[in-house]
Structure formats: C-alpha cells, structure tokens
Amino acid sequence: MRREKNLNGDSRQSLSSIRKQILKQRKIEFKKLSRKPISILDSPVPFKKTNLMRLTEMKFDRKIEQLIRSGTIYELEKKLGVDASTISKWRKLIRTARDAEFFEQF
What we know:
Elements: E1 3-5, E2 11-13, H1 15-25, H2 51-60, H3 64-68, H4 73-80, H5 84-103
C-alpha cells in the first residue's frame, strides 16, 4: 500500500488507496468507461451541419455529402424537398471546407 508522509513525518495512507481498499473489501468493481462508437451520421466533418442537414441525412439514411453530389440542384430540390438555393449553399459550404482541410496539409 502506498503511504504518504505529511510535514510532521507521520505516514498516512492516501485517500485513493483507502478508497480502493474499501471497494476491494466490498468486492465492488467498476467497469472502465468507454466511448460510444460514432455513428456514420455523427462522424466528424470539417464544417458545421445545420439541423436541416441532419434531418435530411436521417430521412434518407445517407451522408449529406453523398446526397448533395447525386444530381443537379433542381433534381435534388424535388428529391430532398429542400430549396435549390439552400442546396447550392450547402455545396459551396462543403466544397470550401474540404478545400481548406486539404490545403492545411501543406
């Protein structure tokens, strides 16, 4: 067991060792915390997704990048139910974020 000396020279057990000892006596084991796996829709991207982007991803079960590239702006407007100007802004946002991410390498 680990003991600590205070200023007077007395040795004492640290609080963490006492805590571990008590838990061991009571046969209490804690599981180590682990992170939840990140779903495809929540994977990190170099731009902030709007609520409408997330809703569209959930509705069509595909990433927004894949949806945006799959046709003309007007075809996507009908397919996704989102205004053409919004789709155009999304394309620009994604393109500039990807370009910035690429050029940061150099």
